[in-house]
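Example complex used in Figure S2.
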Amino acid sequence: MERTPAAADPNLTPAAGDERSAGRTRVLSADFLFHHVALAMAILVGAALIAVVIAIAVDSWPAIKAFGVIGFLTGRTWDPVSEQFGAFPFIVGTLVSSAIAMVLAVPLSFGIAVFISELAPSWMRQPVSSAIEMLASVPSIVYGLWGLLVFAPAFANVEPWINDHLGAIPGIGVLFQGPPMGIGMLAAGIVLAIMILPYITAIMRDVFVATPTRLKESAYAMGATTWEVARKILLPYTRTAVTGGIFLGLGRALGETMAVTFVIGNSDNLSASLLMPGASIPSVIANEFTEATTKLYVSSLIYLGLVLIGITLIVQALAVLLLGTVGRGARAPS
Amino acid sequence: MIPLYARRRAVNALASTLMFVATAIGLFFLAWILWTTLRLGLHAMHWDLFVKDTPAPGSDGYGLRNAFVGSLILMVIALVIGVPVGLMAGTWLAEYGGRSRPAALVRFVNDIMLSAPSIEIGLFTYAIMVAPMEHFSAISGGVALAILMIPIIVRTTDEMLRLVAGEMREAAIALGAPMWQVVTRITWKAARAGILTGILIALARISGETAPLLFTALNNQFYSTDLRHPIANLPVVIFQFAMSPYDNWQQMAWAAAFIAITFILVLNVCSRLILKGTVKRS
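Predicted assembly (616 residues):
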């Protein structure tokens, strides 16, 4: 590189004659290399999803052979001793805990997003949004620790009240009857709701703020109240992105592992009451993976992971498609 | 007309109150979690945490040194693998792929990977590394964390590079610079604050990840720097200690949680300051 001044930096300084063509080949090869390394990495990233699905499917093959697809999905026994594995209680646990989380988190997120974009005085908007976003940067293991050692004992004091009041409602009352243990399906749903709240809020807030001021102000000028603007202008205008944000939160709730493992109670019995302990797919895998001794046991746990991928992938793909380019920044945890 | 107006006012007042309550609930839980971690974490702080290793079950010891070192090693492995891959893939998307169909497909997959449950990444790494090697290892834990980091780095790199003005690239090309130099010397430099922010955010995200490490790095009661063997790390130590009946173990779990949260918040503040600094300068 140091031979001649021209060759010292052949790429930026046009050299003359032979040196120029010598420089050109080197430039081309460096260029070729850079381009193709970048391309290779992009292909790697693009192939990641398929690789994940294939690798997990291959490792769950022994369990797929042993229990089949329908048999595994509907099997109600999970008995490592006799090596009988069925996913049904955990699928129900995953769906129920996520459903509780959505029922709580979606209205709360909507309220917070409208509060930030329409109601709050301007000096309050930034601090409140940052604080809610901070909920997303708390690691899930800390949610679990807090959920088990602080929230669950506190929640156990509220549960008798839930028993007496919600449990007395005919029809749905059975959902709220049970011993006040603190941990259980409902506690897991509440902790999950707090965890997904910042993601849904961030997307709703972004699209509400981005709604053309013109639209909002014409409604206000017609005498619409804040609530009417939120309900009849913001929500219809941002419907697609809001749905995408909800799916994004749902995807997070379905796959959340550590926090749920701490508070769901880890029982493979199905129970009608939300106060009873249950288990979700991620919580079973996290709890039993290191104890799994036989090949079929490990394979069945990985098969559970495959089922989880099947569920979350649909939800995530819908979220990404619905969101398009909206709220891109909000999706990365920050 | 008057009763209708009064009713609308009442509905609005009720809705506004509920929105205020929703915000208060969100802030209340944040304050509760942070306050608990701060109070119990500071209470459990002790010099021994940093100089002694995790004690055996039931013994009186107090220490997390092996977990700190282990977490640090895992993060370094993740950075060493994740940053080049993420940076180059993001660069291809922004500089070469542009708006083409293959680039759109890579972005779609990357967006899905961005919010993929971390437990799936853990199982994947188990399947490709731990199962063939037949034992848990630090290196597989680092790889799992790298896989979690990459989508975040790809996304931010792609977005930040696309913000760089096309004129800058054209000016460099007009001077005869080949594409690789345009990228490394012009656009990377112009977007470096944003790219660095992405890396810090990715680091913040993986520093609390637990689920993928359960299937890869596992845990180790002893001090170890051997990449081929299980290694202690803060998140799994918190998991194990929180579930335990021992008082000193639970205290250490809080201390570890406090340190993890502090680390993440510092990273977040740093990334925000870096971004703000460049916005002001340009």
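Residues 17-59 of chain A form the longest helix (43 residues). Chain A touches chain B through 97 residues (CB under 8 Å).
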